[in-house]
Specification:
GO molecular function: hydrolase activity
Helix content: 25-40%
Number of helices: 10
Pfam family, one: Abhydrolase_1
CATH class of the largest domain: Alpha Beta
Strand order of the largest sheet: 1-2-4-3-5-6-9-10
Number of domains: 2
Low-confidence stretches: none
Oligomer: single chain
Protein name: Alpha/beta fold hydrolase
Radius of gyration: 18 Å
Shape: globular
Keywords: Hydrolase
Mean pLDDT: 95
Distance between the termini: 24 Å
Largest sheet: 8 strands, mixed
CATH architecture of the largest domain: 3-Layer(aba) Sandwich
Structural class: alpha/beta
CATH superfamily of the largest domain: Alpha/Beta hydrolase fold, catalytic domain
Length: about 280
């Protein structure tokens, strides 16, 4: 495993040979959220796939932006992929926010994408970020200048977020620098976007004006999630005519965390089905 500030975005590399796979995480996430899947794809000797775990803008170790834009995020992803492997096409995998970014990247730079896997998100306007406002407020309210350690942060955060899974996921963004603490997620940008209400750019999906992507697309959906509905199929097929829905029963929105073996095997099948690059 190797880490590098490749291109404009921070990336982590897993694997040394084989087809190239890039992973894009969701809101509040980081590229390392896909580490388990990447290691499974790369195989025990690292030669089955070369995986790139990308920190999206405003997340992880990547630069922050002044205004959110799917086109801007997609441009940064495209530049990063080109810098990491000039001339090589990718299997591009994206979950939630990263799924939307992956779709926009694929539509605007189809030359970079051999195949696309979208995980539990649809190319539509979800209305607002109300479901995330609690998380943003809780993170912003944590008194960073008073923290004595990570255990203290855990205890304080537990008062506003009782779910240990959610709490751990959000607190992965908390980083210590000697005696000071900071958030790696650009909370001010997220808060401004959430304040837009129905005009949220993150909740929306842009009209790129690009032609449909004619390559193979797998649409992984959590059976218990609710993020993707039957009526979303028409819009998905309009943009991605070869989109093939795959429902993973018994899991919610975090398909790759709740069913890593299923996701890993699905990606292996996708790679086996691809023609030579």
């Amino acid at each position: 495993m190797r880490r590098a500030g490749t291109g404009t975005l921070w990336t982590t590399e897993v694997g040394s040979a084989g087809p190239r796979v890039a992973f894009l995480h969701g809101l509040f996430g980081q590229g390392r959220n896909w580490t388990q899947i990447a290691k499974a794809l790369a195989g025990p000797d690292g030669t089955h796939a070369r995986c790139l775990l990308v920190d999206l803008p405003d997340h992880g170790r990547s630069p922050w932006t002044a205004e959110f834009s799917y086109e801007g995020y997609a441009g940064s992803v495209a530049a990063t992929l080109e810098a990491a492997a000039p001339g090589d096409p990718w299997l591009l995998v994206g979950h939630s926010l990263g799924g939307k970014v992956a779709m926009v990247t694929t539509l605007t730079r189809p030359d970079l994408v051999r195949s696309l896997v979208v995980v539990d998100i649809a190319p539509k306007d979800y209305g607002d970020l109300d479901r995330f406002v609690h998380y943003i407020e809780a993170m912003r309210a944590l008194p960073l200048d008073e923290l004595t350690g990570r255990a203290d942060a855990e205890e304080r955060f537990a008062r506003v977020e009782p779910d240990p899974g959610v709490r751990g996921f959000l607190l992965q963004n908390l980083r210590r620098h000697g005696t000071t603490w900071s958030w790696r997620a650009n909370l001010e940008l997220l808060a401004r976007d959430a304040a837009r209400g129905r005009e949220s750019r993150i909740a929306d999906f842009p009209l790129t004006g690009a032609p449909p992507y004619e390559g193979p697309v797998v649409w992984l959906v959590g059976g218990d999630s609710g993020y993707v509905r039957d009526e979303d199929t028409a819009q998905m097929r309009e943009l991605f005519p070869r989109a093939r829905p795959v429902v993973v029963n018994g899991v919610g929105h975090w398909v790759h965390s709740e069913a890593p073996e299923v996701v890993s095997e699905t990606l292996r099948r996708v790679l086996r089905s691809l023609p030579p690059a």
